[in-house]
Amino acid sequence: MGTGQWVVEKRSSFRSDSFGKEDENMPETGCLSIIVLGASGDLAKKKTFPALFHLYRQGFLPPDEVHIFGYARTKISDDDLRSRLRGYLTSDKGSPLDFAEDLSNFLQLIKYVSGGYDDEEGFQRLDKKISEHEFSKNSIEGSSRRLFYFALPPSVYPSVCKMIRKCCMNKSDLGGWTRIVVEKPFGKDLDSSEQLSAQIGELFDESQIYRIDHYLGKELVQNLLVLRFANRFFMPLWNRDNIDNVQIVFREDFGTEGRGGYFDEYGIIRDIIQNHLLQVLCLVAMEKPVSLKPEHIRDEKVKVLQSVLPI
Fold first, then answer.
1. How sure is the predictor about 114, in pLDDT bands with cuts at 50, 70 and 90?
2. For the domain that residue 39 is a member of, what is the CATH number?
3. Same domain, 160 and 276
4. Within a domain: residue 4?
5. Active site amino acids
6. What secondary structure letter does DSSP report for 252?
7. What are phi and psi of 113, to 5 degrees?
8. Disulfide: which of 121, 184, 252, 267 matches 275 by Cβ 3.0-4.6 Å?
9. Are the C-beta atoms of residues 239 and 297 closer than 8 Å to each other?
């Protein structure tokens, strides 16, 4: 790296401690099932399903191999869920003529299963629905893929993970896999976070667990790396000698809007500061990473956090 140039590699070529035995050079040929747990909740309708719809419109979720399943305690039908989601998937701005057709086709990919988060029968019904889809796509057993997205409060993560492990795991000997995606806040404090990691770690390999912060997907946040390290004007000036102070301001133009129960349990500080805003702080303050590999970016973020004095 003596030239100061960044090296960009495809994710699949990385070999590091964060990818385990699942990450082999086995072609992914089977169908993909995306299961949104907590499908009737606020996060799912405002963030998860709109994001999936955008991926669908961009061609990343081909309808001939992808199906989406919603799972929650609310007792509604497939059509009821589709009706609830429709308003959140409709753009307020002028849309191309094919938008309505895309929306209709996308909603037809969604099926719904009702059940509790510690209900074995519910997860068995979910597994049956997924298996029927895999069979209809003529996927060879062991080649299909299952992605479970937790649009849920962390308090139910352990019980849901146990049910997935017991009822919904996919055989992965022919390039197939089962993965879980967990959202923030990951516990209420350090102790509960470590306990949660231990509980999930007993059930899944590290390569099967994806901890995400959806703020990192925002265009403005993603552009911070380019703004800082690919800009000849900013890069030499972005230091304490030239910058007096940095203020990270979080504003929303709406209230709790259906999230009252969630905020009663976690609060706005745990919901925003130690994940979203701390990630932005790290991107603003970190040194240039060796490369764009996720491990190298993570290492530079950790250096920032280690340099922050305790309040």
1. very high
2. 3.40.50.720
3. no
4. no
5. 276
6. -
7. -130, 130
8. 184
9. no
